[in-house]
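Entry 14. Structure prediction run on the chain below.
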Amino acid sequence: MQPVSYVSYSTHPTKAVEIPFSKDGRKRCRAVDDFQVYGTHKVPVGKTEMKIGYDERNIYIDVCCHEPSGVFLNSNKGKSNDVWNGNDMLEIFFGSCAPEPWQFQFAVNAAGQRFDSRGSTDDWTANMEFKEGAWSINLAFPFDLFPNSGLSIGFNLCRYAMHRKEITDWGGIDVSFHEFENFGELLFCTYEQALFAKTGRPVNRKLTRSQYERELAQASIPANVLTHGPLCSHVTEDSAVVSFGTAGNCGAYIYYRIKGMKGTRWNKMPLALRNGLVGQTEAFHRAVLKRLRPGTDYEYMPVTLAPVSDKLLKCVVGEFRTMDAGKKEFSFVFMSDIHSTASLLNAIVKSDAVAKCDFIVNAGDPLSRGNGYDTVYRGLFDPLAATGKNIVFVRGNHEQVGAYAQITCDMIAKPTGKTYFTFRQGDVLFIALDVGDDHSDTVINKNAAVIAEERRWLRRLKEQPVFREAKRRIVLMHIPPYDIEHSYAGQASAKVLGELADCDINCVLCGHIHKYFVIESGTGVRNFKLTGEKLADSAKLPFPVIANSNDTYLDVKVSDGSITSTAIDVNGKIVDIVRL
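Output returned:
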């Protein structure tokens, strides 16, 4: 069975009609008359019919408005210039909410007055005719008016029968004439081609309109359905980040509370709240929970808002435990340099070490290039979310590669927005550092100023109680202080770590080189444990550096008296053990 593949913003199956092309667009038209009473979906008393076609220049819409009462005009006979003056009238809408929102509104009444939301009625024509018991109008809208919408265009036609106070429309709106989420569609292609274009599923049989609408509905997923996550990251003693993705843009909340307190009301946090308004224009949602209790289990639940109706959809419940300065023993898994290799990532996240650890450190380069949300979801977010663990993201150089690199950084960012930060677990202070890309500044990469700021931050950090009072300190970063004579990145790493040269650092954990090695304290020598090779090309620092490979991970266990790093390859074989 094929998965659903079309994101729907509508509150009901979308109407659509295949309209024919001809050199003279009115010679071949599609007749449509399935209008409904606004907000009720009932059959209206006054019938409305339209015929739609197109040629190389225009979309043609000929409308016939039947009126049982025979009354089309009010007592003013259209003397007012206001199109909404009490006469029988039509409003015509074109637009769409996805992938980019746009909308145009046109109106014309039985007295001939017109309205155009763009401020000009000169670009389109409306020719009127009265018949017994009906009035009709022939409309022509040039394609040049509209953004390029591909093989279809969102459309709705609404009618005010003012004398009877009956309001009808074709698309099936629920709340407002302007709700483009519930517009129908005019198709400039066959139903088969339209279904293929929207769902990615080729169709090898002829479809009727009802079959197309039904199959599109079956292939649809509501925009507010949870599709990615939730993922918990950057948990500290008093805060946590919860992120998740939905099928499309929608509003969202996070409900959270202390775990086990079933009678306790959820804390309800609206997301993307600005100026009193919950944002509904994002499909990636991120909540920063604050003022939490240390060493406490919490449960949380993403809640999304359905488009138009704003109905709440409660999603899966997740949980996390805040960091605890009093914790005597814990473990974490350190991984790096997966570079979009699913087999490596899957082997690590399914390991016993991950199942038993307290948190995971992803130390950079999970992707070779972050080409938008889907790439990050598939190659990083979804596999890590499935572990249910707290993820600490440390930025690597490949998080700066590509036009959409900022999306990757935003999805994994610390709430401060900085790529360097600290957190505590037990008596260990973790210091996450970042030296940016592996080359000097370009027109895109501007890391020199960030590194200088980071070094100033480290100097201030060393004077703070959180640093001074820590019994042990572990540095997490992507690039090691290697090959300092030739490597710009290695030189940058050495400069940043040099700020800690007068401090008691237990170890530095890093990656980047795609080979496992250890630089023992004070030696500046890279010891490649698997091959026996040694290179005396690194910075001589008064603490050990352990560099993870792309096909290994570090299972780090911290107890009251020791820190042990066990390097394990993706087949489960122990590569090295370092006791610190």
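The first helix runs from residue 191 to 199.
Filed with the rest of this week's runs.
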